[in-house]
From TrEMBL:
This is Protein fem-1 homolog B. One of its GO terms (molecular function) is ubiquitin-like ligase-substrate adaptor activity. GO terms for cellular component: cytoplasm; nucleus. Pathway: Protein modification; protein ubiquitination. The keyword Membrane does not apply. The keyword S-adenosyl-L-methionine does not apply. InterPro entries: Ankyrin_rpt, Ankyrin_rpt-contain_sf.
Length: 268
């Protein structure tokens, strides 16, 4: 409706964008048709207005455009854009060292508890606990790897404290313990490997649990370090020894023992 135009709220001029303001009508847009720099800046301005300065995706095109200027030896303009991108990132930066109150921690734990009991799974059957101990778990932003990467001992402990099932298995019958013993950085990240194995075992992980290939975590261990750590934690109970004997001798136990024990014998 040409008689009832809704005016958009444009951003104030930003130094990094050459103090340009967003085009308000077709004529202004037409005037920069042949100006490649102006068109690129127009795109950055529109993106920042629509997504908002606090959106973490806003800074990526700004950083990229700055890199293009750097490649063309236009370092002053590059620095302007990168400083602007830094400023936007700092505005949404959340300190990982912030101490939350006991009340806030309880609220967080309750939400995590509710999430765990929804039992979300990946297509491979991974639970949240599997993802927390898996070095292949992707992080959605390469900048985030500096503050959050996997396997993660603190996330593992938090999930266990909030009720995660320590012996839950994926589609291949692997528990979280099967996954962590395959971690390929046992020396450079020893503390993480050690902390996670300890947390899992203390939470009741069965060190003799077998997957669909009839492999225990010890069988799946790919390094001597994880093998040693696991052996120091192995305290075989009488019921585990009995279950393994039943499976090893192919004794029929279906409908012969309480159903609550059938699953227990089954994963040995």
């Amino acid at each position: 409706d040409g008689d009832n135009i809704l005016e958009k709220e444009v951003l104030p001029p930003i130094h990094a964008y050459g103090n340009r303001t967003e085009c308000r009508n077709p004529q202004e847009l037409e005037s920069i048709r042949q100006d490649r720099d102006a068109l690129h800046m127009e795109g950055l301005i529109v993106r920042e207005r629509i997504l908002g300065a606090d959106n973490i995706d806003v800074s990526h095109p700004i950083i990229y455009r700055g890199a293009v200027y750097a490649d063309n030896m236009e370092f002053e303009q590059c620095i302007k854009l990168w400083l602007h991108a830094l400023h936007l990132r700092q505005k949404v930066c959340i300190s990982t060292k912030t101490q939350c109150s006991e009340e806030d921690q309880c609220k967080i734990n309750k939400q995590i508890y509710n999430l765990i009991h929804l039992d979300p799974r990946t297509r491979e059957g991974f639970t949240l606990l599997h993802l927390a101990v898996n070095s292949n778990t992707p992080v959605d932003d390469f900048h985030t790897n500096d503050v959050c990467s996997f396997p993660n001992a603190l996330v593992t402990k938090l999930l266990l404290d909030c009720g995660a099932e320590v012996n839950a298995v994926d589609n291949e019958g692997n528990s979280a313990l099967h996954i962590i013993v395959q971690y390929n950085r046992p020396i450079s990240d020893f503390l993480t490997l050690h902390s996670i194995i300890i947390s899992l075992v203390e939470a009741g992980a069965h060190t003799d649990m077998t997957n669909k290939q009839n492999k225990t975590p010890l069988d799946k261990s790919t390094t001597g370090v994880s093998e040693i750590l696991l052996k120091t934690q192995m305290k075989m109970s009488l019921k585990c020894l009995a279950a393994r004997a039943v499976r090893a001798n192919d004794i029929n136990y279906q409908d012969q023992i309480p159903r609550t024990l059938e699953e227990f014998v089954g994963f040995h």
